[in-house]
């Protein structure tokens, strides 16, 4: 490809809207162009790279024995109502009506459709296991699109679905997919952590995320430096510091004028946060829920949402709190009966707690559960934090930020039972098919690969997913010998199966060309110039090498090949 | 691929809903599964085939010097309002709102977005010409989805857009794309007619369709058997038989009780249809339009719609006709002033016409234009029919039905002027970029290839787009020698780069396997059986050969290769 023809313009300056390195570099290198919030066009360089990512994913999926198909994005909303997921996805799913007023969904995922397909094609245990996958455009109406290709509303996803005759089969399919994912990320130069994860609106039992650790990631991963335990903070369970259980003292009202936060309250009363219980108010599908947790801990909203089986969970608004008769800042479960009360087991770790007295500027000392208050539900809703201890080996846990690049789920039989996908087992008994699902964000892999592989000059494309192998720079194209040698080299490289981006511009200075080559970041840069040609040589430099080397014109193809070989 | 694992089930009987051969065969062979009206999942066999079609299209587009990119399906509706095409597409375009209530379109085509991309990346005539293309999922809310993959609401399309510095450049890009399209159809074994076409809601000047002639097609192509002229009936212009112009006679009222049709009227009065003028009432964007055309001709609604510059055109309803004070069955333009009157020039070919008298059961003889009635607009709105004469060589034209598989358009500068995509010419003057656009329905190519290539036993896949090259049938897999020989052959063929579908089923009879092989229609069938193995041979048969041949086991790879070579 000649740059003079390439529909791409590099930018000299950082675009102000870009928050992450990959977003900034993809805009500057002319890889993507925004069409609407969270909706991008992939310009030719990005698209070549994405096609290579797709091919790597395809090869690994095929090698794991799965079959590619293509399912549609437009689906009858009815199908989503059958499984209850129209409500579960809510505003995150784009919905529309066709010209006859029939409700349609723009599918964010394909469990419903793929289950129906398998239902029509699988009859007996002899037809199982089956893994189906597709590379397809997904639509999700993200509330906060961000970071270029990381959180977008339309994106290419590889989604796979496994169908097995039971849990042992599912375990095997799950392991095969996990291994395929590790292979994909390795080939794309993305070092991932495989972490236990919450399964969210997809539903199901076990679930793991593959995350690229990076400061700009939007997920928090809790890891154990000793035993290797890793889990998304949404899912992680660790052991928080135990508090001694004291002899219960009588409840005692204290005046706490103006003490609205745990920190100020603790300072005023001279107690630790772990000696208090805090109240947090949520709205679960619109209903106010009163949550009690020990003061040094935070609520894990995902665990809470799962415990409440609700579709929407958010902090309650001030007027919702007030209209439920609750006093924000001085609330406790003592005497509260008109709202649902949920508590974390940490309310029993310690005692004689400071709690609100449900009137302004007043608290109680020495509150004890269940002597002084009750809960409708006591269940683990505590957020595991760095410093808590690993549940497996008691080592203090650490936290890192990460970007999710893949997610796998054991679904079990929810979809097959709901949609009627059964098989006959070897005894002739009808059984629901056991399912798993497996997603990789193809466009997010590109962003993650750039996030991981760049320097202050630009992108450092991993060779397997670089849009081209070689960036051929011709200096002084007006010089006929240069033009001739460059075009000849260009043709010879392509003939040898090496993909070349050729900077043939006549109106760009050498510095501009070199900067663009560093910014776009192909693995190998070749420079044809009058000076080099006088030595019958071409300058060759790997994108990450400090030193350039001179290569005889006739040896260039071999030299490039050697550089591109994986080490 | 082993059929025992393949997610596909063939059907023995024709599905009742299938109207065309390709639809019927694609359902029976398990290629597609309907998800909603006009919305299909492509099962693994179809998807392999479609990916090969995509690759052929990609190779021809790349060879023609165009660059692949990927644009999004979700687009701000605002962009479509800027060009006026939100109204032009109307209900044919899916529209929705995001969670913040912002209107979005599911793009049926991409002129708006691609023009904005080029606008941001092209500055000077030196950056032109440029052709961009994508393989992308398109959405169109067709009023009447039909014929399997022929008229659907979600489909894969290759759409390309050319950008040139003027009309001469556009002509060259247009020719290059036309040639690329011919190459694609040849490689997919689809014999096409390239016909002049109307450019519809896409807009623009010249336009051509590529059509596969077939009785089940929904388009009519008018062709000249002598000079090769070909045009979609919507666009075709031919010469209808001239009528002699007689001496005008005085207008004369006649009673025509019960004569509501042209045919009954002609019989009653003893005149030819060409001696009458007929009145047809349309509603153009809701306004009643009175159309007059010679009685032996029909109105070409596309020409009429273009002449009226309206977005929606349909026959007027009875109450609309009545409320405009018109008398259906006895209407003429004589004395009509309260509605818009459009006439075809055929009102002046002939004379002393029989026309309606605008009262029930009454007509006039000897109506003449413009003596007796006037029109607001006289323009060619006649439908060219077989038997009319070729405008170029006066040969009687013929008509065939066809399925459109490609469509190319000269757009001119409408989009670049509307959206501000200009370039600096060699004089430093700002000029709008001249555009063309080019579409191929990838999934429709598959349907057309099957429509063209089948027999009463099933599909006859053209080798370049067959899901697999070879259908390997093992008879009696319980026989260890058969199983071993078949698996060995399967492995050797794949190792030689030959793609094999392996019927390894233990529970299917030989007849079922042979029927499935014919139905799926791969180019070569190989049969491993106890009897064949006794001769150390395998039976080989091309899908269209009457005769099978025995091939020594060791020679099979070579023999298959020879059969797959293009003749």
From TrEMBL, chains A, B:
It comes from the Eukaryota. Keywords: Aminoacyl-tRNA synthetase, ATP-binding, Cytoplasm, Ligase, Nucleotide-binding, Protein biosynthesis. InterPro entries: aa-tRNA-synt_IIb, aa-tRNA-synth_II, aa-tRNA-synth_II/BPL/LPL, Anticodon-bd, Anticodon-bd_dom_sf, Pro-tRNA-ligase_IIa, Pro-tRNA-synth_IIa_bac-type, Pro-tRNA-Synthase_IIa_type1. The keyword Ribosomal protein does not apply. CDD domains: ProRS-INS, ProRS_anticodon_short, ProRS_core_prok. One of its GO terms (cellular component) is cytosol. It catalyses: tRNA(Pro) + L-proline + ATP = L-prolyl-tRNA(Pro) + AMP + diphosphate. Homodimer. HAMAP family: Pro_tRNA_synth_type1. SUPFAM superfamilies: Class II aaRS ABD-related, Class II aaRS and biotin synthetases, YbaK/ProRS associated domain. This is Probable proline--tRNA ligase, mitochondrial. It is found in: Cytoplasm.
């Amino acid at each position: 490809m000649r740059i003079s023809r390439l529909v791409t313009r590099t930018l000299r300056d950082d675009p102000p809207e870009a928050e992450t390195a990959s977003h900034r570099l993809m805009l500057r290198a002319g890889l993507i162009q925004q069409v609407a919030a969270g909706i991008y066009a992939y310009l030719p360089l990005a698209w070549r790279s994405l096609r290579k990512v797709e091919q790597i994913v395809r090869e690994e999926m095929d090698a794991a024995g799965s079959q590619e198909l293509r399912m549609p994005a437009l689906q009858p909303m009815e199908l989503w109502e059958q499984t209850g997921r129209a409500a579960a996805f809510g505003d995150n799913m784009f919905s529309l009506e066709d010209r006859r007023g029939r409700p349609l969904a723009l599918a964010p995922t394909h469990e419903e459709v793929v289950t129906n397909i398998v239902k029509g094609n699988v009859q007996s245990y002899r037809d199982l296991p089956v893994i189906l996958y597709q590379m397809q455009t997904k639509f999700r109406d993200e509330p906060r699109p961000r970071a270029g290709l990381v959180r977008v509303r339309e994106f290419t996803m590889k989604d796979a679905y496994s169908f097995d005759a039971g849990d042992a089969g599912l375990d095997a399919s799950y392991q095969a997919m996990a291994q395929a994912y590790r292979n994909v990320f390795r080939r794309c130069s993305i070092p991932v952590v495989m972490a236990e994860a919450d399964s969210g609106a997809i539903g199901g039992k076990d679930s793991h995320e593959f995350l690229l650790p990076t400061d700009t990631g939007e997920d928090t991963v809790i890891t154990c430096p000793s035993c290797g335990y890793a889990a998304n903070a949404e899912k992680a369970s660790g052991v928080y510091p135990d508090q001694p259980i004291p002899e219960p003292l009588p409840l005692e009202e204290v005046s706490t004028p103006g003490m609205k936060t745990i920190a100020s309250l603790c300072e005023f009363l001279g107690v630790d946060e772990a000696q208090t219980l805090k109240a947090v108010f949520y709205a679960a599908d619109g209903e106010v829920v009163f949550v009690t947790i020990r003061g040094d801990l935070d609520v894990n909203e995902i665990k809470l949402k799962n415990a409440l089986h609700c579709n929407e969970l958010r902090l309650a608004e001030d007027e919702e709190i007030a209209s439920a008769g609750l006093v924000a800042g001085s609330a406790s479960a003592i005497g509260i009966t008109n709202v649902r009360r949920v508590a974390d087991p940490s309310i029993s770790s310690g005692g004689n707690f400071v709690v609100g007295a449900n009137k302004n500027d007043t608290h109680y000392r020495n509150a004890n559960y269940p002597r002084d208050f009750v809960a409708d539900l006591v269940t683990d809703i505590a957020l595991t934090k760095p410093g808590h201890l690993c549940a497996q080996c008691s080592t203090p846990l650490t936290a890192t930020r990460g970007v999710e690049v893949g997610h796998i789920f054991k679904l079990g039989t929810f979809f097959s039972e709901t949609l009627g996908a059964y098989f006959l087992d070897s005894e002739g008994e009808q059984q629901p098919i056991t399912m798993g699902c497996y997603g990789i964000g193809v466009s997010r892999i590109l962003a993650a690969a750039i996030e991981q592989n760049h320097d202050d000059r630009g992108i450092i494309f991993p060779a397997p997913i670089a849009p081209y192998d070689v960036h051929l720079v011709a200096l002084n194209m007006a010089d006929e010998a240069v033009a001739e040698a460059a075009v000849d080299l260009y043709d010879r490289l392509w003939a040898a199966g090496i993909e070349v981006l050729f900077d043939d511009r006549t109106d760009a200075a050498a510095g501009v060309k070199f900067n663009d080559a560093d910014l776009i970041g192909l693995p190998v840069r070749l420079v044809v110039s009058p000076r080099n040609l006088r030595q019958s040589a071409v300058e060759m430099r790997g994108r990450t090498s400090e030193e350039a080397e001179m290569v005889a014109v006739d040896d260039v193809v071999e030299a490039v090949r050697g550089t591109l070989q994986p080490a």
